[in-house]
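hey can u run this one w/ manganese (II) ion bound, need the structure tokens asap thx
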Amino acid sequence: MYKIVVVPGDGIGKEVIAEGVKVLQAAAEVEGITLDLDYMELGSDRYLRTGELLTDEDISFIRQHQAVYFGAIGDPRVAPGVLEQGILIKMRTAFDQYVNMRPAKAWHPYTPLKGEKNFDILFLRENTEDFYMGAGGVLNGKEAEAKMHLKRELYTVDLNLSSSVSSDEEFAFEVGMMSRKGIERFADYCFKAAERLGKDKVTAVDKANVCTSLYGLWREIFDAKSEQYGIPVEYMYVDAMAMALVRSPERFGVVACPNMFGDILTDLGAEIMGGLGVAASGNICPGGVSMFEPVHGSAPDIAGQGKANPIAAILAGKIMIDQLGRPDIGNMIEWAVKMAMKQKKVTADMGGTLNTVQAGDAIAELVRQAR
Ligand code: NAD
Ligand code: IPM
Ligand code: MN
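ok here u go:
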């Protein structure tokens, strides 16, 4: 029996999670396991009604469960960042889900890359630090309103402002920070994943040619961990990595990214697989409560129209079952998704004719046939 909190969220989150649950329940039935699902309302409607985002009570409730199955949040009625920071990023940090696992593999014939390239990449994105720590502010002349509190020391920063800007003028800043502990535990996870998957290297992405302090520490630690695990590390600057992912994705196995670059590259990773509609992720806290969600957002442009592809949410369910210790069930779900793609039982974004519910039904039915 698995105790799971289900958060449909906003927009197409609601539509795709319904299909994900349908498929998980079909798999549970076939395998004789029980999913104990508790639904939780998080997102724009609750926020607009009550002003609440992710509350302490919500966090305590989630702690009594093994995992969170999450749709998406985001709504044009709410200012950018309110729901994203107050719910999603808060969840990732409150539960210390420091690894964001985002597999990208070629789904033939849906990959838009020419030449039938075969690739199977495990993107691992550091998920709690970097530019996502909310360390920012606006300095307006002598008035300073900064959200940054560095506890240990006071830092004096000499800003190299261009000649047109004087330090009396208003400017805004957002600081990228990573801790030794944060990079070390993440790097450990990356090298262990490479070991487990039999990959011959870890590719670490950064911008160490510009952000020398931040990604200098990153490289120092990846060098040391590479030595420790006896697995080579290959460094790629994020700009070159964007190019290489389109040109030769088959070169890569485990790709380790700082938080912000990982966000960007995994949308690219999604697109080269077959689109955002098939990209799934797990926010992992080893030994703790992890959260599983599609890579995509609430897609207000297609919400409520039955157009959303449920595969990303269904594969997020697969990653969840894998992580809960039943990779056999996860593989069965992935097999059903593969069959649905092969039989063209897919939504319009993949060139099919099915709506969201029909696509979910087809995959649930294939899961039942898998036995
Ligand atoms: P998005 O991922 O929601 O959509 C990008 C594009 O991809 C849109 O054209 C959309 O229609 C399409 N798309 C996405 N998922 C699809 C699916 N399953 N099937 C078919 N097409 C799909 O990104 P956005 O439009 O930049 O963001 C919308 C909102 O979602 C924003 O508020 C953003 O902050 C939020 N967001 C939330 C999450 C999350 O909750 N994990 C992730 C990303 C974005
Ligand atoms: C994602 C999303 C989030 C992120 C946003 C909505 C905060 O884009 O999960 O990829 O940047 O991590
Ligand atoms: Mn993203």
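Confidence is low (pLDDT under 50) at residues 150-154. anyway lmk if its weird
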